[in-house]
Amino acid sequence: MKETLVFVSRKLRDSVLGICITISLLVVSFTVNAQHIDIDVLERIHQPGQSQANQFYQGLTTSADYVAVLTPVTMLGTGLLSKNKELTRKGIQSGIAVLGTYGVGYILKKTVNRSRPWQDYPQIMPYQFDDGASFPSGSTAVAFAAATSLTTSFPKWYVAVPAYTYASAVGYSRLRLGAHYPSDVLAGAVIGTASVWVSGKLTKLINK
Predict the structure, then answer these.
(1) Rounded distance, CA 182 to CA 137, Å?
(2) What is the pLDDT of residues 192-205, one digit of tens each?
(3) Would you list the domain boundaries of the chain?
(4) In the CATH scheme, what architecture does the domain 2-206 have?
(5) How far is CA 193 from CA 42, 120, 141, 150, in A?
(6) Distance from C-alpha of 121 to C-alpha of 43, rounded to nearest angstrom
(7) Using alpha carbons only, what angle is made at residue 102 by residues 198 and 113, rounded to the nearest 5 degrees?
(8) How crowded is residue 8: how many other Cβ atoms within 10 Å of its Cβ?
(9) Which of 47, 53, 97, 173 is the most exposed place for a label (fewest CB within 10 A)?
(10) Residue 207, class by beta-carbon neighbours within 10 Å (0-12 exposed, 13-18 middle, 19+ buried)?
(11) Cβ atoms of residues 176 and 49 within 8 Å
């Protein structure tokens, strides 16, 4: 058992490092070659001001963390209460994915340390001044982790469509509110989705 845990921890470490290095290289390349595209797209979507619509989008952003936590907790809790081993396993897998998403996001924010759009472009007036670096979008990442967890656990169109619609809306809200560049949001979506894939591999190793 001890050898299995050591092996799994090494795989997790290698996976996290691999994701971080790959995405870091991508963002450096994107920043150097296409920064003007990033800000151009953001300016088209961003809507400054304290409008009711922006209040809605801020609420959507805030909901991402709650949804990301409740998704694995609900799956795991339901699985344990109903003694459904498969649902319990899926809940654990979802939990690993969400934790991994938070971890990768934190590492990349510290490593890349990208400025927020409003710090470099005065025409961007955010709904609120968020702390921390811009890359990647953490809210988008955890929203896509939750959406992908649900979709892989329950592969039905009526699960996938609302799940990914919600996750995409969270990503859009970060642009609408002027909190992130489009590349931050795109990277967040990739991280959240990839974390579910990695967690699936890890849970299979644990269950061997």
Answers:
(1) 9
(2) 999 999 998 887 77
(3) 2-206
(4) Up-down Bundle (1.20)
(5) 23, 29, 8, 11
(6) 10
(7) 115
(8) 16
(9) 53
(10) exposed
(11) no
